[in-house]
Amino acid sequence: MSVDSRIATVTRRIIERSKPSREVYLDRVRAAVEKGPHRSVLSCGNLAHGFAACGVSDKARLAGDAVPNIGIITAYNDMLSAHQPFETYPAIIREEARAAGGVAQVAGGVPAMCDGVTQGQTGMELSLISRDVIAMAAAIGLSHNMFDAAIYLGVCDKIVPGLVIAALSFGHLPSIFVPAGPMPSGLPNDEKARQRQLYAEGKIGRAELLEAESKSYHSPGTCTFYGTANSNQMLMEMMGLHMPGATFINPGTPLREALTREAARRALAITALGNEATPVGEMIDERSVVNGVVGLHATGGSTNHTLHLVAMARAAGIILTWQDISDLSDAVPLLARVYPNSLADVNHFHAAGGMGYLISQLLKGGLVHEDVRTIVGQGLSAYAVEAKLADDGGVTRVPSPAESGDAKVISPIDRPFQPNGGLKMLKGNLGTGVIKISAVKPERHVIEAPARIFHSQHDLQDAFKAGSLTGDFVAVVRFQGPRTNGMPELHKLTPALGVLQDRGQRIALVTDGRMSGASGKVPAAIHVTPEALDGGPIAKIREGDMVRLDAEAGTLEVLIDAEELAARDAATCDVSHYETGMGRELFAQFRATAAPADQGAGLLVF
């Protein structure tokens, strides 16, 4: 199956750029694989500690070192709706492993914070940092060297990227990601957005807003809008780390449990003790990463993945750049419209054909690499299916439908919603950033207006409440980068900016912070690097400077003479208030050594 020449060109570029680091990585993985089943290197005392809590039959199996043992890394907690279903998964996986002649143990838990809870709060400053903490916590769990494969239980924003980094760091182990699925649909997304804007304008009170939010987020499962959490799940299927068709099955259903059981059996089948050994570090390659980026563009996915995909790829020795992501966006049409890019949620997306139909259309258009390795031992065509509950309670699969179940939600490859993915890199005298325009009306792709300067999202909100944000303007919200305060999401800006845009003002946002997969109709240049704390050009903008954001040309400029810009002193800001409280003092070293946004904005360097 031939691949579009533009996709092939970017893939070759990534392969060539990555050769030195990829070869070092693969040598390390293969050396670990050659050592064989790893419990054999443990002393009797080591091994006795490792299975002391197991039942008699599991102890007997592990003592002989002849059966595969699955290490479960879980992000379960019962405060997060998306992760609450994982409470029962370890018992299900252990039971299925025993029935298949193997063993499974929870190797460790990782933290899982909710960006929905921490939006606009101090805790959000730990959100991006948590990705690297999750990777390190998973590594601690797997470091006991007791395991022949790993199953990762995680869903949301930083959890899955952190778990992928951990999985690739233990690249000699086969790895399977098991999702929990989205909650059933609640309050329609357009009504939720309307209630938020009414609250921002002071037209309804907190009680009414809380009632609307509670009707939106109402049960176990992932939030149903297409933000980072659901973009994560899409990526895991596109990269062959989920069982086919597993991504958007609701929690608490027989099919959801059947898919979890199937994943446990498959994890046992692909260890080095069998005939289908699939070390994840060899399985995931440059083509797999490109397929993930293509899926992101085709679905209008989260801007956060311009950070996460870069970091995830580097964990496997693969050097992915924003230019690669932007060039792939130009080659990939938008095939899905899911809120905030439309009124439909992920349940509507799944009902219209979901991942199976999407993948079938991408294959038809030659926009993905079919010949990748996946956990099921077949290429990406194995994922152009729909999973169903079989009569015996297991999983059966049928080919994806030939037609979209709702062409307003998923379009066929020959009738895309727009010709590109809408996630572009911006470059200019203000540095480098990214913008997502899949939900931005074409007439707002270019904004030129005077700058209004803010050093926090709360300052902008205060100005909005005071009624001082009049006329056209570009809001410059700076000192929000990874080295300043951990690069929190600034999603609290969305309602206020949305109100102003709806009033007819031409506005845009420029920031060295994040906006997430929930960013929508307001043009926003985000992740601008170098960040303000490092003296980046964003720190040289002054109130009233004309700023031009051009998403069509891919430029981000302050319209002043180059010599004047170079001569200006960068603004400074007292950031000491970001250093303590809510645990922030524990992460000073993370902030001090964080990489720039275009290198993943994390502590971990590969």
UniProtKB/TrEMBL annotation:
<dbReference type="GO" id="GO:0004456">
    <property type="term" value="F:phosphogluconate dehydratase activity"/>
</dbReference>
<dbReference type="InterPro" id="IPR000581">
    <property type="entry name" value="ILV_EDD_N"/>
</dbReference>
<comment type="similarity">
    <text>Belongs to the IlvD/Edd family.</text>
</comment>
<feature type="domain" description="Dihydroxy-acid/6-phosphogluconate dehydratase C-terminal">
    <location>
        <begin position="408"/>
        <end position="601"/>
    </location>
</feature>
<feature type="binding site">
    <location>
        <position position="156"/>
    </location>
    <ligand>
        <name>[4Fe-4S] cluster</name>
    </ligand>
</feature>
<keyword id="KW-0004">4Fe-4S</keyword>
<dbReference type="InterPro" id="IPR020558">
    <property type="entry name" value="DiOHA_6PGluconate_deHydtase_CS"/>
</dbReference>
<comment type="function">
    <text>Catalyzes the dehydration of 6-phospho-D-gluconate to 2-dehydro-3-deoxy-6-phospho-D-gluconate.</text>
</comment>
<dbReference type="InterPro" id="IPR004786">
    <property type="entry name" value="6-phosphgluc_deHydtase"/>
</dbReference>
<feature type="binding site">
    <location>
        <position position="223"/>
    </location>
    <ligand>
        <name>[4Fe-4S] cluster</name>
    </ligand>
</feature>
<keyword id="KW-0408">Iron</keyword>
<keyword id="KW-0119">Carbohydrate metabolism</keyword>
<keyword id="KW-0311">Gluconate utilization</keyword>
<keyword id="KW-0479">Metal-binding</keyword>
<protein>
    <recommendedName>
        <fullName>Phosphogluconate dehydratase</fullName>
        <ecNumber>4.2.1.12</ecNumber>
    </recommendedName>
</protein>
<feature type="domain" description="Dihydroxy-acid/6-phosphogluconate dehydratase N-terminal">
    <location>
        <begin position="68"/>
        <end position="381"/>
    </location>
</feature>
<dbReference type="Pfam" id="PF24877">
    <property type="entry name" value="ILV_EDD_C"/>
</dbReference>
<keyword id="KW-0456">Lyase</keyword>
<dbReference type="Pfam" id="PF00920">
    <property type="entry name" value="ILVD_EDD_N"/>
</dbReference>
<comment type="pathway">
    <text>Carbohydrate metabolism; Entner-Doudoroff pathway.</text>
</comment>
<dbReference type="InterPro" id="IPR056740">
    <property type="entry name" value="ILV_EDD_C"/>
</dbReference>
<keyword id="KW-0411">Iron-sulfur</keyword>
